[in-house]
Design a protein that fits this description.
By secondary structure, the protein is α+β, with helices and mostly antiparallel strands. It folds into 3 domains: 152 residues, Immunoglobulin-like (Sandwich); 160 residues, Efflux pump adaptor protein, beta barrel domain (Elongation Factor Tu (Ef-tu), domain 3); 135 residues, no CATH class. The chain contains 6 helices and 33 strands.
Amino acid sequence: MRPPALILYAASVLASVAGCRGHQPASTAPAEDASWAVTAWGERHEVFAETDGLVAGQTAVSHAHVTLLADFSPLRSGSVTIVLRSPNGHEHVFRTTEPSRDGIFPVEIETPSSGEFDLLFRLESDAGREEIAAGRVRVGTAAEPGALPEAAPEAAPDTVPFLKEQQWRTRFASAWAEEGSLHDAVSGPARVRPVAGGEAVLTAPADATVASEPWPHVGLPVRKGAALFRLVPRVGDRSLPDVQADVAALEADVAVARQRVQRLEGLLEVEATSPAELERARAGLVALQARLAAAQQGVRATDSLDGSARSVEIAAPWAGRVAEVSVSPGQTVAAGAPLGRVVRVRPLWLEVALRPADAARLRAERLEVEVRRSGEVEPLRRAARLVSRAPEIDSRTATLAVVLELDASASELPIGSSVEADLLLPSERQGVVVPLTTLVQDAGTTVVYVQLAGETFARREVHVLARQGGAALVEGLRPRERVVTLGGAAVRRSSLLSSGAPEGHVH
């Protein structure tokens, strides 16, 4: 279990940062003002207590600001107990269950004797029970009220006030800066591509009309050999169904014309019609028979395109997903026209643009890659295989392209995506590791905000040595410093209000 941490600040420090109580600057504060403040962190709670000077036999009020560390919200219900433990182990216990406002619990303290005591906070809430040690305090007399046994350090001139009410109203979190390690990495922009041979453009083998069944759509998973399109071949500039319809119509016309000729021949024998009328009927029959023969020849020629079939199916060459559909049902296409595109969705290729010196550092065939898309903090981490390095440097970007085969699918990384890729090397770097959300860009400088006390922060410039996933290895922080991991930009805005800083809050 992590030991609790505490920070003690005297009234002069609170005054210099315009704390909760709205004191005047230290140079004008009355000498008898012995109020003090203490900040202590446990595993579940943070306590920031502002307390009047302690005088034996008199009542002092401690305004305990309690934050739930699970979500950094104010404690709204529960109990806060302040314990003063004497050197002989006797405890003076002061408890309240009534907050004056969300997160603020006024605890009345009255000790019968002066001296130094160990200070403890005992808290009960939905987060559980917890006891947090908070150092030592001194109980004095009316002539010399007690506060902290040692003088508090002077407040730095660049500290930033950020009140508890501000922290509770915004997305805020803090944590201890920890020592750790990150892999060395080389980084560069990258593009997601299908593997070599993993993209197929389906084309029409002959002039044809695209049938409406079956019909694919973008994103459709397909198995190898599944029919995606059906084509009806064309005769000249007409489709096979059109020619077949003409054949049927001409066959009917020929039958009618033949019956007419036969009827006219009978009428001519009884001299009920003229020879000219019969000749005209015979000529019409011959013309219809010629047109019928031509149409039937076109149907036979179309049948010979694929044996005896009257349509052609275009099938998927392998299992994958439909990436593009280029035609519409009923559309006429020429031989070689693209119908659609199918891609393999796993594995993928990642083409990374690296500096030549970084590309030369890649030695292992197998390595780990972290891929970040725009706007995402947590990367996708996958195993990868080094496929190849480009033989030449791109003259436009002065980078060398490296191709990796990534064990990922298109549902995780859509093909065509532009991403940032970190290629992790076997070597590691040691130092202070913080979440990436800790870093704040301030006029081109990377900074973090260190929490000195409950409502007091300091701006710290850092140098980022390495990034990996959602973490960064930084120079400029010490282990066990409390840093703002979420809401640093809000603390920065508060620092910009130096000329109009808030004057404190009312308990």
